[in-house]
Amino acid sequence: MSEVLVYVDHVDGAVTKPTTELLTLARRLGEPSAVFVGSAVDAAKETLASFGAEKIYVLDDASLSEYLVAPKAEALSALVAEKSPAAVLLPATTEGKEIGGRLAIRTDSGLITDAVDVEASGDGVATTQSAFAGNFTVSATVTKGTPIVAVKPNSVAPEQAAGAGAVESVSVEISAGAKSAKITDSKPREKTGRPELTEAAIVVSGGRGTSGDFSQVEAFADSLGAAVGASRAAVDSGWMPHAFQVGQTGKTVSPQLYVANGISGAIQHRAGMQTSKTIVAVNKDDEAPIFELVDFGVVGDLKAVLPQATDEVTKRK
Ligand code: FAD
């Protein structure tokens, strides 16, 4: 069976959910091999093996963490040249897409970003891609070199499957050119205890209809173990930081469930959430445009609806 390389997204060895999704998809294309950059592979190997990684290639060199993404792309391209995989899958995060782009140039291969589905096909890898802020669904396939595919988080439900998880150390030689931009400082994100917005399976968002009080939105999110999002109106009003903004000029999310509270459903907000699997809205105006998009809608005041929904979810736990 042909090998499929999966770039591992992790935080100090804690494997992120998008990586487990990539391993799930990789199994449709061939035999998954995880590519782990860093020194904390011991913390990661059990998870990687439990999602089907047969091999875990470890690239452990100080320059891979000291510099921006160029050394990672260089190391990965050396691995692609050596292994000739059937495909390379990366998460469609800022880092994953940049590595993918550089890797495509280095290996003279085609790149597909923001894929939401991946299947084996006669002539390689068939993908479904969400393009132009989610306004088009495109079927695409790579016609040159090694298919390099960046997959949006939450595109598939991760499924476990036992893999051997054999760790193999790979020596890396990074060129001076790849070391031309260095990280000089980094600050960890403030911990909220909630999942990352773009990775969360459930997102509960609030808009201008909250009148600046996000406490009911946050309580409902916490009852569901969800991330909190916001419309631009809420962000521009200073109620939530920009990191929470969903939409054209904010983040694109594609969770299993998106709950919009007091959000009218402007096209720029939809651009960031319309590929969510199930959409629910709470809005007191039954003619709000968001209701054209939803699977379930509640016409009512969010200040009355959300506490009841929170109680109900908490009761059923
Ligand atoms: P509103 O449109 O004011 O809607 C508030 C809604 O809350 C209304 O439907 C109202 O009926 C309802 N409501 C009020 N009180 C209650 C209550 N008590 N209970 C229940 N419902 C209630 N917007 C984004 O969100 N993300 C973006 O990334 C983004 N990028 C943009 C980029 C550009 C270039 C431009 C021009 C605009 C962008 N916008 C973006 C702004 C967008 O056009 C809208 O202005 C914005 O999404 C509106 O936010 P809102 O739905 O919270 O507010």
TrEMBL record:
Annotated organism of origin: Solicola gregarius
GO biological process terms held by the UniProt record: fatty acid beta-oxidation using acyl-CoA dehydrogenase
Function recorded in the entry: The electron transfer flavoprotein serves as a specific electron acceptor for other dehydrogenases. It transfers the electrons to the main respiratory chain via ETF-ubiquinone oxidoreductase (ETF dehydrogenase).
GO molecular function, one term: flavin adenine dinucleotide binding
PROSITE patterns, sorted: ETF_ALPHA (PS00696)
Binding site for FAD: 208, 231-232, 245-249, 262-269, 283
Family membership: Belongs to the ETF alpha-subunit/FixB family.
Pfam families for this protein: ETF, ETF_alpha
Cofactor note: Binds 1 FAD per dimer.
Cofactor needs: FAD
Assigned keywords, A-Z: Electron transport, FAD, Flavoprotein, Transport
CDD domains, per database record: ETF_alpha
The Electron transfer flavoprotein alpha/beta-subunit N-terminal domain, residue ranges: 4-188
Oligomeric form and interacting partners: Heterodimer of an alpha and a beta subunit.
SUPFAM superfamilies: Adenine nucleotide alpha hydrolases-like (SSF52402), DHS-like NAD/FAD-binding domain (SSF52467)
Protein name from the UniProt record: Electron transfer flavoprotein subunit alpha/FixB family protein
